[in-house]
């Protein structure tokens, strides 16, 4: 087979580097026939805590019959301290070392409540944003709970005496691959270390910075580096190294010992790069994780495989610098022919024609991927910029004589290759101005490329099966990884920087908080055991009412089976305390899924007509929906029911229709009850006035989260959700509001807004709803914020605290209830392990630490108010604790107070009889945001975000379209459960 392409436009991919200036792929003809790139309301609880008196004067403008004004001094308890305070923007940023209070002896929860600060009267000012808010210092450590010893995957790092020197690195021509950049810098360091670098080694971050343990013998210098490519060609790079800054370790040491509050993040980052330098060689670096087939790999399906690896991060803690190491796994493209990948990705017969939706899906999946064309001793790489709109059978180009020839004919005549899949589009490489077209069946996906798209259900299941590790196994894997990295044998780490990594996991004195008693109907009270309890013979404390309901069946299940299933489910609801009419309002409607909108509309009209005769003014209260066997309809059903028809629905998968599981019916009954306005259970402490920082005065608890689009969806909006408790003191009912915002925007922009004289926003609406629901204004706000990374703390806090304050003051002058702002983090890599594996007294059945285990020492922040809480029992794998970090606290929480409250709330999740891993307000916000995103399911795929070069530009993303408005009759209940 010839490898010499002579034409200036190049031969096909598969042609060689011949004497002409061929590009190796088919260049398009400017004629019209060439292939062009495609653009192509619940019962009341009898027992309630006493309610402080609340002023009903000073009604804010525009808010009718609503008092959100501050209670007069006479309304406060007799021992209340009246204080004035500067607004947020005028409060000083504290830099002095905080006073650490010694641990107090164990006390009861009630003592902590009694010690809570009284209400505070605020100055009548609306705060404005400042450049920084002072994060509260830790005022002591928790003491409540049974003490125990556990281990954490943190390894103490002893600092050296040498300050890191930072240098800017510029490589020309520009190299986008961090792996290639590391290769260049590694070669440079070995080549010039003795002669030009003062015998110092360089730690390189793969981007634009390098660090040395001392000054290099120059301010700025250019180096030449020649590398041999895989195809045998030699390529030269110019590398400029220029001094940038010296990082003073003394500031880091002062921070770690609490003598200063500002974290020297750049210094920590420099040392993190040093510890990562040797470990990154020959491995794929993805963020703070490193992957390699040496740790293991496997197939996930649909053209995707996984590589195992580990996560590594240097963190400031109370015990000093800590190296956090955890096992990790990542999806990569499986090396295969691109045509085979397309067949697996779409689960499609490639002999059949492609439609536009399929082409766009593949285009997104392959965007910016590297492919290789291999022929005998020939190898050439290309980057995928897109797919052609036409199949390859319709692509033509001019040959050397100027005659128009088809790509299919060219490969047949030139290389004796008969393309098997002429209906497939071609890969578009090159540039927009001069694209190169490559047949998918001669292109191989290059190995080691991470898969950026969201994994499907099958792939997620396979990944969990392959990587799930029990605590004992995970601890052993972490320890082996730490030892194999040989940090203390690394010349850069030990000799140059003088650092040493301790080789033992950190031992921690933890505490196991007691589970809170739960109140059910009547005199029933239950004490959870190891994070779970049973509802057998128990009734919900407040059962909702369902007088009018209907059934829609979109599955292939027979109507008699569906009717039997629904009757069993209704009976379970009745047994658990829901007032439920056993007969549906109208006859069941069955239809294929393509008629979803029509069927739901018919149910609305038929039920409306029937109610007009039998119960004028009433409406359908619940719709059972049996989902179709095929996936992808859930979002459509919820969107129509909740935003168009105003119907609360309960969807059930068709496989459950036959199983008739009592456990399933019980779980669904709990969801139904809260959807129709009931309560399943409440914390006993909320009824006897002993729930810390809640029962002593009207308190509203918020949860907030932002969900972002899956990777590859460049124009989809991010969705913010905020929930707030609507009952006090029980704090079990949460109303949810959602809002769409700019793509990948983490700050919630719609918390408060003002348009002229009109005020609005999520916080304001929820405050009004709380007043209407409870008859009281909130005297305290507790705000659990999920999804914020450490680098976003200050930005999110500044904007969102300001919005909360403005929302309060917009309702009534001077209304500034004390706020506590807590960030909830699950995406971290801290793991806890029992000190003795297999000890029944310190582990649950899965081998994990016990639910209620709390840690606020050693591995926590040196000075700030944070803690880790493992509030749930493990099911499989190793439990992940939740990290709670207090960014603002005007309620003066004690460590015990916040830890006990947070742990107790984790037992109030409405959907199961288990404590959950994350505080329910944050969990509900997460559910509400994903429900809102499901409304967007089925939207037409757009080709506009698949651009040349594979980069989405924010300036070109589509304007944010508002979400469908949730019907008032739906958003007043917990529809998202």
UniProtKB/TrEMBL annotation:
Gene3D superfamilies cross-referenced by the UniProt entry: 3.40.50.2300, paz domain (2.170.260.10), Ribonuclease H-like superfamily/Ribonuclease H (3.30.420.10)
SUPFAM superfamilies: PAZ domain (SSF101690), Ribonuclease H-like (SSF53098)
Descriptive protein name: Protein argonaute 5
Gly residues bias locations: 8-17
GO terms, biological process: defense response to virus; regulation of translation; regulatory ncRNA-mediated gene silencing
SMART domains: DUF1785, PAZ, Piwi
Domain PAZ: start-end pairs: 341-447
Annotated keywords: Repressor, Ribonucleoprotein, RNA-mediated gene silencing, Translation regulation
InterPro entries, per the entry: ArgoL1, ArgoL2, Argonaute_Mid_dom, Argonaute_N, PAZ_dom, PAZ_dom_sf, Piwi, Piwi_ago-like
Family: Belongs to the argonaute family. Ago subfamily.
Residues in Piwi domain copies: 622-937
Disordered, as annotated region: 1-56
One GO cellular component term noted in the UniProt record for this chain: ribonucleoprotein complex
One Gene Ontology molecular-function label: RNA binding
UniProt source species: Deinandra increscens subsp. villosa
Keyword rRNA-binding among UniProt keywords: no
């Amino acid at each position: 087979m010839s490898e010499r392409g002579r034409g200036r436009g190049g031969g096909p991919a598969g042609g060689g580097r011949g004497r002409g200036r061929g590009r190796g792929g088919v260049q398009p003809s400017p004629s019209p026939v060439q292939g062009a790139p495609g653009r192509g309301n619940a019962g009341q609880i009898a027992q309630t805590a006493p309610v402080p008196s609340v002023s009903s004067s000073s009604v804010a403008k525009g808010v009718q019959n609503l008092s959100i004004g501050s209670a007069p001094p006479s309304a406060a308890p007799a021992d209340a301290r009246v204080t004035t305070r500067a607004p947020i923007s005028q409060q000083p940023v504290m830099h002095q070392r905080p006073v650490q209070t010694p641990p107090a002896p164990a006390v009861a929860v009630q003592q902590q409540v009694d010690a809570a600060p009284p209400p505070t009267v605020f100055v009548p000012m609306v705060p404005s944003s400042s450049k920084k808010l002072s994060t509260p210092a830790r005022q002591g450590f928790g003491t409540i709970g049974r003490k125990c010893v556990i281990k954490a995957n943190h390894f103490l790092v002893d600092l050296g005496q040498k300050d890191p020197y930072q240098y800017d690195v510029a490589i020309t021509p520009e190299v986008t691959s961090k792996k290639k950049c590391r290769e260049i810098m590694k070669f440079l360091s070995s080549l010039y270390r003795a002669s030009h670098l003062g015998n110092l080694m360089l730690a390189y971050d793969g981007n634009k910075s390098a660090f040395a343990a001392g000054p290099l013998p120059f301010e700025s210098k250019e180096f030449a580096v020649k590398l041999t490519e895989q195809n045998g060609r030699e390529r030269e790079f110019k590398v400029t190294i220029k001094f940038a800054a010296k990082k003073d370790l003394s500031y880091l040491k002062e921070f770690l010992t609490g003598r200063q509050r500002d974290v020297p993040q750049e210094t920590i980052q420099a040392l993190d790069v040093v510890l990562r330098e040797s470990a990154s060689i020959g491995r794929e670096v993805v963020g703070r994780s490193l992957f390699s087939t040496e740790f293991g790999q496997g197939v996930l399906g649909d053209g995707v495989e996984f590589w195992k690896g580990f996560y590594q991060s240097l963190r400031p803690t109370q015990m000093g610098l800590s190296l956090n190491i955890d096992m990790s796994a990542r999806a990569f493209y499986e090396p295969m022919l691109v045509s085979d990948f397309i067949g697996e990705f779409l689960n499609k017969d490639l002999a059949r024609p492609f439609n536009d939706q399929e082409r766009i899906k593949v285009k997104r999946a392959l965007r910016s991927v590297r492919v290789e064309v291999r022929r005998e001793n020939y190898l050439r790489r290309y980057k995928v910029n897109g797919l052609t709109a036409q199949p390859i059978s319709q692509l033509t180009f001019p040959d050397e004589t100027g005659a128009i020839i088809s790509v299919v004919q060219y490969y047949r005549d030139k290389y004796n290759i008969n393309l098997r899949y002429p209906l497939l589009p071609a890969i578009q490489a090159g540039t927009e101005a001069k694209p190169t077209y490559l047949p998918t069946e001669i292109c191989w996906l290059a190995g080691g490329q991470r898969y950026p798209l969201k994994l499907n259900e099958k792939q997620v299941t396979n990944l969990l099966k392959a990587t799930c590790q029990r605590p004992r196994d995970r601890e052993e894997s972490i320890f082996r990884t730490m030892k194999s990295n040989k940090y203390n044998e690394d010349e850069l780490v030990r000799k140059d920087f003088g650092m040493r990594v301790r080789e033992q996991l950190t031992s921690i004195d933890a505490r196991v908080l007691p589970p809170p008693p739960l109140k059910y109907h009547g005199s029933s009270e239950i004490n959870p055991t190891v994070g779970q309890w049973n509802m057998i013979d128990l009734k919900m404390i407040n059962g909702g009412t369902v007088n009018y309901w209907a059934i829609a069946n979109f599955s292939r299940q027979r109507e008699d089976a569906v009717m039997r299933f629904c009757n069993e489910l209704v009976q379970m609801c009745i047994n658990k305390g829901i007032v439920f009419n056993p007969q549906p309002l109208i006859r069941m409607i069955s239809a294929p899924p393509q008629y979803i909108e029509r069927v739901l509309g018919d149910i609305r009209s038929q039920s409306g007509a029937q109610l007009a005769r039998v119960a004028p003014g009433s409406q359908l209260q619940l719709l059972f929906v049996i989902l179709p066997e095929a996936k992808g309809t859930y979002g459509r059903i919820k969107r129509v029911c909740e935003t168009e028809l105003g119907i609360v629905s309960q969807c059930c998968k068709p496989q459950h229709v036959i199983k008739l599981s009592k456990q399933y019916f019980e779980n669904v009954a709990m969801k139904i009850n809260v959807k129709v306005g009931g309560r399943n259970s409440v914390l006993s402490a909320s009824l006897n006035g002993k729930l810390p920082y809640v029962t002593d005065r009207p308190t509203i608890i918020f949860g907030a989260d932002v969900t972002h689009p899956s990777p590859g969806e460049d124009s989809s909006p991010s969705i913010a959700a905020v929930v707030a408790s609507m009952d006090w003191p029980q704090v079990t009912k949460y109303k949810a509001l959602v809002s769409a915002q700019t793509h990948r925007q983490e700050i919630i922009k719609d918390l408060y807004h003002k348009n002229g004289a009109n005020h609005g926003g999520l916080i304001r609406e929820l405050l009004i709803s709380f007043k209407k629901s409870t008859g009281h204004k909130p005297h305290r706000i507790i705000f659990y914020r999920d999804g914020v990374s450490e680098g976003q703390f200050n930005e999110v806090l500044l904007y969102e605290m300001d919005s909360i304050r403005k929302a309060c003051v917009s309702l009534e002058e001077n209304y500034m209830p004390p706020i506590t702002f807590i960030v909830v983090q699950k995406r971290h890599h801290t793991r806890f392990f029992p000190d003795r594996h297999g000890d029944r007294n310190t582990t649950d059945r899965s081998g994990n630490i016990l639910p209620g285990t709390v840690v606020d020492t050693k591995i926590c922040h040196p000075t700030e108010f944070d803690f880790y809480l493992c509030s749930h029992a493990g099911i499989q794998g190793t439990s992940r604790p939740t990290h709670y970090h207090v960014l603002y606290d005007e309620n003066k929480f004690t460590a015990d107070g916040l830890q006990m409250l947070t742990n107790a709330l984790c037992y109030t999740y409405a959907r199961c009889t288990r404590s959950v891993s994350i505080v329910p307000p944050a969990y509900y916000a997460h559910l509400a945001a994903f429900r809102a995103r499901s409304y967007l399911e089925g939207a037409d795929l757009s080709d506009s975000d698949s651009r040349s070069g594979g980069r989405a530009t924010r300036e070109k993303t589509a304007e944010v379209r508002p979400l469908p408005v949730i019907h008032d009759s739906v958003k007043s209940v917990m529809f998202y459960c």
